[in-house]
């Protein structure tokens, strides 16, 4: 931990599920958790995630099934990671469990976790949205268990299958194949991703505003972009692990529920990410009414400006991409 303490907990999909379940509370909607865990971890994981809105039939016991990663904090934001075990890959048959889903959140920790063939099958068997966090696909593992960044070699094959692509600012260079520095470069890159197939590309910048680029509904050839601020004063940053996982769940929930509105989706995603940063717990998220209260408090002026933007076409927040 940044404080020098040592902590051990279940993470990754556990953060996304915990965030999503707060949003689904008291609704008739259900989430399906698809993951592999080792037999010795199964009871603890099922107890952690147990919830009436969660289907755990996709949580499968596999020998050495739990991905194990040791994170060493260099400071409050930067970490070194060493991996001692890799989850066995998903199979084509397991994709059938997700066929009826309205949306699927793909969060590989390693490039082998979710084979491209599985995503291609998923694209065939479901009409649901496919959201990909690119993190694991640009992460390699050497013989010492050290995780390192690498180029996304088969991006051209993945992008046509994906609806929403997410990454952070440091990951963009491994997708783009070159470092990106200026806002203009990030905008052009994100718009290029959207032009290649996905509906939207979301880039996060830690405690700075996110960038979202999207293809306009019913105006397929027009691509827009906007910056969305993050919530920075909920409390001190205690642990950034899981912020991205939680924010992805928030984005996808809002995108499905609010008619594919990309900006509102980033707002909920940013909010859940900030709530996670202010907590050391996996279940770091308050009930939905409190989450909405945080949004009203911190995004009221931004949303008012967004409405003016829509009514007056002043382009204070939403901009059309004209380059490329």
SSE order and pairing:
Blueprint: H1 13-24, E1 31-32, E2 35-37, H2 39-49, E3 54-55, E4 59-61, E5 68-73, E6 79-85, E7 103-106, H3 116-125, E8 129-133, E9 139-141, E10 147-149, H4 155-158, E11 164-168, H5 169-176, H6 183-195, E12 200-205, E13 208-216, E14 219-228, H7 243-257, H8 262-277, H9 288-312, E15 319-320
Helix pairs in contact: 1-7, 7-8, 8-9
Keywords: Kinase, Transferase
Pfam family, one: PfkB
Domain Carbohydrate kinase PfkB: 154-282
Number of DSSP strand runs: 15
- Main structural class: alpha/beta
CATH architecture: 3-Layer(aba) Sandwich
Number of helices: 9
Helical proportion, percent range: 25-40%
Tell me the count of domains: 1
Q: Quote the distance from N terminus to C terminus.
A: 43 Å
- The order of strands across the largest sheet is 7-8-11-12-13-14-15
Name the helix and strand elements from N-terminus to C-terminus, one letter apiece. HEEHEEEEEHEEEHEHHEEEHHHE
**Which overall shape is indicated by the principal axes computed on the Cα atoms?**
globular
Mean pLDDT: 93
Give an account of the 3D structure:
This protein is globular. It has one domain: UDP-N-acetylmuramoyl-L-alanine:D-glutamate ligase (3-Layer(aba) Sandwich). The N and C termini lie far apart (43 Å). It has 324 residues and is α/β, with parallel strands linked by helices. The model has no long low-confidence stretch (mean pLDDT 93). The chain contains nine helices and 15 strands. Helix 1 packs parallel to helix 7 and helix 8 runs antiparallel to helix 9. This is Carbohydrate kinase PfkB. One of its GO terms (molecular function) is kinase activity. InterPro entries: PfkB_dom, Ribokinase-like. Keywords: Kinase, Transferase.
